[in-house]
Specification:
Elements lengths: L1 E7 L5 H14 L4 E7 L10 H16 L7 E11 L2 H13 L4 E6 L7 H6 L2 E4 L7 H19 L7
Parallel strand pairs: 1-2, 1-4, 3-4, 3-5
Helix pairs in contact: 1-5, 3-5
Length: 159
């Protein structure tokens, strides 16, 4: 399975980089996983609604340029479907069973994802009703993908 994590912005925090690198190393035994960073759109702190939509649209175009037609896209969105770790494991297992070997998880920037990206997504996934920094979501996501592979292989994992 080939998994891409397409995310907006550069990761600066050393502790997050170290955690992500650790899980990517662990995941390499199960799948080919790559993190693709697209530049975030520079914008002032205070934006009007239309300016926010413009920022999301520009970031969305960068995201969509990284997705091939045969990729199953899972967008991380607050309004997405909530799953347990076992549900995510089952979902990934079913995708593999039905020949979906290319999967892309999309993490938007601080303003979220554009409507175009959400329309392209095959699934929307929410980790919580809470809002998390998009940099932290990278770490949470790679840990959960790793956990999903462990669950599917019947290997022990922390509960």
């Amino acid at each position: 399975m080939n998994i891409s994590i397409i995310t907006v912005g550069k990761l600066k925090e050393k502790y997050l980089k170290q955690g992500i690198e650790e899980y990517l190393k662990r995941l390499s035994a199960y799948a080919k996983v790559e993190v693709i960073e697209v530049p975030d759109e520079k914008a002032p702190e205070v934006l009007s609604h239309s300016e926010m939509e413009q920022v999301k649209k520009k970031e969305g175009e960068r995201i969509l340029a990284k997705i091939s037609q045969d990729t199953h896209v899972i967008a991380l969105a607050i309004k997405g479907k909530m799953m347990t770790s076992e549900d995510l494991a089952d979902s990934l297992d079913k995708l593999a069973t039905y020949g979906k070997s290319k999967i892309a998880f999309i993490i938007g920037g601080s303003l979220g994802l554009s409507n175009e990206v959400l329309k392209r997504a095959d699934d929307d996934l929410s980790f919580s009703k809470m809002t998390f920094p998009h940099q932290l979501m990278r770490l949470i996501l790679v840990e959960q993908v790793y956990r999903a592979f462990r669950i599917n292989r019947g290997e022990p994992y922390h509960k």
